[in-house]
Amino acid sequence: MSVDLEQFHQVFFEESFEGLDIMESGLMELDLGDADSEEINTIFRAAHSIKGGSGTFGFTEIASFTHIMETLLDEMRDGRRQVTRDAIDALLHSVDVLRMMMNSVQDNTDLDQARVAEQMAELEAILGGESSAGASSTASTEPATASNKICGWNISFIPDETMMQTGNDPLRILRELQELGEARITTNTEALPELDKLNPENCYLSWNIELLGDISRDLINDVFLWVEDDCKLKVEAINEPAEQPAETALNAEPVAAEEAQSAPVEKTEKKVVKEKKPAASSSIRVGIDKIDGLINMVGELVITQSMLSLLGEDFSLEKLEKLQDGLGQLERHTRELQESVMMIRMLPISFSFSRFPRLVRDLSSQLGKKIELKMSGENTEIDKTLIEKIGDPLVHLVRNSLDHGIEMPEDRIAAGKPETGTINLNAYHKGGNIVIEIIDDGKGIDADIILQKGIEKGLVQEGAKMSKTQILDLIFQPGFSTAAEITDVSGRGVGMDVVRKNIMSLGGAVEIQSEVGKGSTITIRLPLTLAILDGQTVSVGDETYIIPLMSIIESIQVNSEMINKVGGRGETFRLRDEYIPIIRLSQVFNIENAKAQNLEDGLLVVVEADGKHCGLFVDDLLGQQQVVIKSLEQNYQRVTGVSGATILGDGSVALILDMPGLLRMSAGK
């Protein structure tokens, strides 16, 4: 029985990327000096799983690279090498290279061989001569003596009868051994039954293999990695007098392994070309408790459906009360089922936060600053789609806090602060939304400097009266930057406007609070999910539209004294100390039968879009409700000013308004 390993590629990549995250977070937590064996074991197990999986699927370049990382980790685990800053840095860089290699193999693109070779050289330089010799002895459970070297292995391989039923093929294992070196294989058929008693799904054969060549024990272990619990395995070294130091064998091993397996690598990579690569969010791990809750809810729904069916078979007015009770149950169960399904998509925001310890460590070292990162609320759950899309804006905001917010150690001491700055990442639920805060205790943002920069760039008129919030809001204008010099961390004036647009495209909002000398707080508010929206239903003529509740500030009825016309065309009204443009939805969407033609006859819904306020003129407010968002782009085509659609209770379709797009669309008229 032959198993097509290609079907497991995506699972391998997903688990390997998780393993890389485990390695990175584990390395970040290591203390310098003597290693904590449990912490090193966690990192080692993740590396070993990646090496074993990549070897099984024929990705030998990844396996060879990970093998060198394993050697260094093994020396730390055994206490033969202390944990040093250089070693941790080298291993963290190696994790980055492994991630690059994984992406290249997954996308079927060329590897950056120069970067791989450079990182391997860094690892080997740290290992040094004595370490390599030590690693050679560790690679074998029965190391050679000083006067002998391993020239081969005697392997006894006795599979369990049920091995093939688990999808493993002993013949494939034997073929992989033949690729490592010269293999003399003897088959034992003593357990083979009579033909009429033979089960074709069972394995009755066993093998003795004499494997000759300069081969490490680790490579043999990798071949048997997936079947070690389904067989009896005995591996003994064959020694012969050594003519050269033992470390030569180790140095030659990765090359020999790579050359010996070059053919299968080429074959496997050609298969990847035919494989359609799924999106990054192609799968999700769900706790069994959530699945159990969903199954129970479906069961309740089936019972309610059966009850309503019986009522419908012979319905009379006497059963009206039971029908109403049944419909009430159906509504409750449907709502609970909806909540259960949405919970399946929810993941802790730690998936986004996990990248920041490494980011803060690297950038603080690069900038010469001392910074401590504190995280709280990592278990706060958010929709998986939002987790994937909020990552880049968060990275940019944290980098800004590192570069612009936290001062140099000497400046902090001079200001009476601890030399180590602090950045807090915090997440929590509030009012049906998730709130993410980036808080630093740095120098803060000087509103006067921001205002002066805004005047210089023509964003603000000289002498304009602005609140502190409005001044700080200038930071999100395109091209705005107060950096004295351009660095590779920040200062090009590109990014903060994109951050706001990205957050607003998710239905969220971002704001800044800051106090000079004490620090800054950036607050992001997001909906818990992109699949369901809290909206305000409004009517314009015979059409119904949904305005996202997060965009609405207030709804008012205006009179003629509040209205001003600009150049005989545009209309504005004064809301307290601000003049706000009016957008007539009937004109934007060409609705001829709008009931309210005069502004006094309808309502203005004041909304925020791209940091600006405007008033949407509608006939009436119909009510607030949760709506399920359907993509127009997938089902029809992209429509400017509309972010999606939903189906209302009466079966009609209502368009969900896109505030930023609507503002741009109105300005273009």
List keywords for this structure.
669 residues, alpha+beta, Four Helix Bundle (Hemerythrin (Met), subunit A), Alpha-Beta Plaits, six-stranded mixed sheet, five-stranded mixed sheet, 22 strands
- Number of helix segments? 21
User: What global shape is seen?
Assistant: flat
Q: Main beta sheet, described?
A: 6 strands, mixed
Taking the alpha carbons of the first and last residues, their distance comes to 68 Å
Q: Helix coverage percent of residues? A: 40-55%
In the CATH scheme, what's the topology name of the largest domain?
A: Heat Shock Protein 90
Strand content: 15-25%
Structure class:
alpha+beta
**Record field, number of beta strands:** 22
The overall pLDDT average reads 79
CATH-derived architecture of the largest domain? 2-Layer Sandwich
Fold topology:
Layout: H1 9-29, H2 37-56, H3 60-77, H4 85-107, H5 113-139, E1 148-159, H6 170-180, E2 182-188, E3 206-212, H7 217-223, E4 231-241, H8 247-260, H9 262-274, H10 288-313, H11 320-344, E5 346-348, H12 350-353, H13 356-367, E6 370-376, E7 381-383, H14 384-405, H15 409-414, E8 420-430, E9 433-440, H16 447-456, H17 468-472, H18 496-505, E10 509-515, E11 519-527, E12 532-540, E13 543-548, E14 552-556, E15 563-566, E16 570-575, E17 578-584, H19 585-588, E18 603-609, E19 612-618, E20 620-628, H20 632-635, E21 642-647, E22 653-657, H21 659-667
Parallel strand pairs: 6-8, 13-22, 17-19
Antiparallel strand pairs: 1-3, 1-4, 2-3, 5-7, 8-9, 9-11, 10-11, 12-13, 12-20, 14-18, 15-16, 16-17, 18-19, 21-22
